[in-house]
Amino acid sequence: MGKCDGRCTLLVICSLQLVAALQRQVFDFLGYQWAPILANFLHIMAVILGMFGTVQFRFRYLIFYAVWLVLWVGWNSFIICFYLEVGNLSQDRDFLMTFNTSLHRSWWMEHGPGCLVTPVPDSHMAPDDHHVITVSGCLLDYQYIEVLSSAIQILLAVCFLTHTLLQIIIQFDFIGGFDSYGYQPPQKSSHLQLQPLYT
After folding, report:
1. What is the pLDDT of residues 74-133, one digit of tens each?
2. Could you tell me the superkingdom of the organism this chain comes from (predicted)?
């Protein structure tokens, strides 16, 4: 069982991506964040296609998956910028993650490690059917948990892309292209015999 070849390594990376995406999907469902739910669903479908392309040696599926991973890195970079409030992005006024359909935030905001949630009674800031809370004592704020989750997604995507690119470079014959036989010079026909010319 010793050595894991290139295809095995790609399957391990795809499996880790699938587990990370499913974990993220669960917590986005709990927080009613519809934009990440949609993106995670598309990513799960793309990972399954990438795994199929790896197992079946389907080059087109791997190219599709590589293009999707570039988009996925962009999406996760946006998530990092959103939660760290880079530029004009603000979590307080932008409801980008819920498509402006609800006031829900990240599930980790109230359920982070060590967080103490206390409701604010009789608050006039809360709309109907909502309540205002204060969260304190968190060991790690929810923004950093979301940033860490996106950073893991980016790391796995970059690992897949670099490993795939290295596999293509290793297998590429620079004279004959993807031809596994290498360069074959034209064969001389056997019916023509050339004799050296002596002068």
Report:
1. 999 998 998 888 887 776 655 666 656 655 677 777 777 887 877 777 666 555 555 566
2. Eukaryota
d(CA 132, CA 167): 53
Q: Where are the domains of the chain?
A: 6-101+140-173
DSSP E strand boundaries for the chain = 116-120, 132-136
User: 14: closest CA among 41, 39, 35, 45?
Assistant: 45
From residue 170, give the alpha-carbon distance in Å to each of 5, 64, 164, 165, 173.
13, 20, 10, 9, 8
Helix (H, G, I), strand (E, B) or coil at 173: strand
N- to C-terminal Cα separation, the chain? 66
Q: Tokens representing 164?
A: 């795939």
DSSP assignments along 92-127, one per residue: TT--GGGTTS-----THHHHSTT-EEEEETT-SSS-
Is 135 in a helix, a strand, or coil?
A: strand
Query: Do the beta carbons of residue 59 and residue 123 sit within 8 Å?
Result: no
CA 20 to chain centre: 9
What does the pLDDT look like over 50-80, one tens digit per residue? 999 988 878 889 889 999 999 999 999 998 9
Q: Which residues sit opposite 132 in a β-bridge?
A: 120
Residues whose CB falls within 8 Å of the CB of residue 142, separated by 6 or more in sequence, listed in order: 105, 106, 108, 109, 112
Tell me: pLDDT of 1 over 50. no
